[in-house]
Design goal:
The protein has about 290 residues and is an alpha+beta fold. Helix content is about 20%, strand content about 40%. The protein has a 6-stranded antiparallel sheet with strand order 6-5-20-17-10-11. Helix 1 packs across helix 5. It is elongated, with a radius of gyration of 21 Å.
Length: about 290
């Protein structure tokens, strides 16, 4: 290990800044100093586009991603997948049967802010500890979620919509996890969580995916459904029922156009359908 790149994302690549502000410069410099003290040659790079991220990846140097959000780390993994995934119809014989991408090269993660994913995985947070992990070279392989939109999910996605006051609105969608149907599209849904790690999301105080594990080869899905019970006397009562399933893939078919969702904290909408599938142990981090 002689050369290391510490990569920070600028605005054009989904990051928070491109000038070392936003509280990013101090931990980056501390990590750089620790790596150099260990004998590494360190280059600092700020990428402002996918093309600039790709140029860093093409160098094949050991990589540390300085990320303010899980979405920034996701942006780098998305480009890694694009770089290493075989083209359609070009599957190699050594590719595992349950994977569409080979083992991606490991990366170091330098958190610049509170990162749910770093906390979930128990990764080092102090710049010196991050540097030590990169120098030691010990890695942990983790599952990756790919989507038919050409992106990836590291931690999880949360689907739902609210009114102008922030109150959850109901909507309808078909939800299938492998061969299990969690919703046939006729029931009022409040939220859907698609998780690769435990504690990804809660709804009304209810943990949606408490049993999710980031390296078990399965995706955890939870659907919060609004249920109305009518007794013989009194007003109807509304309760929340959470339905859960685990599997290799999940398909969501909203009955509304442009369903809002957060994917690793990045906002988006689902037009007609979205599929996620698990890539077992596809990516790795220095620990």
């Amino acid at each position: 290990m002689s050369e290391v790149i510490i990569l920070t994302l600028g605005d054009g690549a989904g990051g928070c800044c491109d000038d070392g502000g936003c509280g990013t410069r101090t931990p980056v410099l501390h990590c750089q100093d620790a790596l150099r003290a260990a004998g590494a040659e360190v280059t600092l790079v700020t990428a402002n586009s996918d093309a600039e991220i790709d140029a860093v990846l093409e160098s094949n140097k050991r990589l540390v991603v300085a990320a303010s959000t899980d979405g920034e780390l996701r942006a780098v993994l998305r480009r890694l997948v694009k770089r290493y995934a075989p083209a359609p119809g070009k599957r190699t014989e050594d590719l595992p049967a349950d994977r569409t991408v080979p083992d991606l090269p490991p990366i170091g993660v330098l958190p610049l802010d509170a990162s749910p994913l770093v906390t979930l995985l128990g990764l080092p947070k102090d710049p010196a500890d991050v540097a030590a992990a990169v120098v030691a070279g010990t890695t942990r392989r983790l599952d990756l979620l790919r989507t038919d939109a050409g992106s990836v999910t590291l931690n999880g996605a949360l689907l739902g919509t609210t009114d102008p006051d922030g109150r959850a609105l109901t909507w309808r969608a078909g939800v299938e996890v492998d061969d299990t149907v969690l919703s046939d599209g006729t029931e009022p849904i409040l939220a859907i969580a698609i998780a690769n790690g435990s504690g990804y999301a809660t709804f009304d105080g209810l943990p949606l995916t408490p049993a999710a594990v980031p390296d078990d080869g399965l995706v955890d899905v939870a659907v919060a459904v609004s249920m109305v019970s009518r007794g013989l006397i009194g007003k109807p009562k509304t309760r929340i029922e959470v339905r859960r399933a685990r599997g290799r893939a999940v398909g969501i078919t909203p009955k509304v156009d442009g369903l809002p969702y957060l994917d690793d904290g990045v906002e988006g909408t689902i037009p007609k359908r979205r599929n996620w599938w698990i890539e077992r142990a596809a990516w790795a981090v220095y620990v």
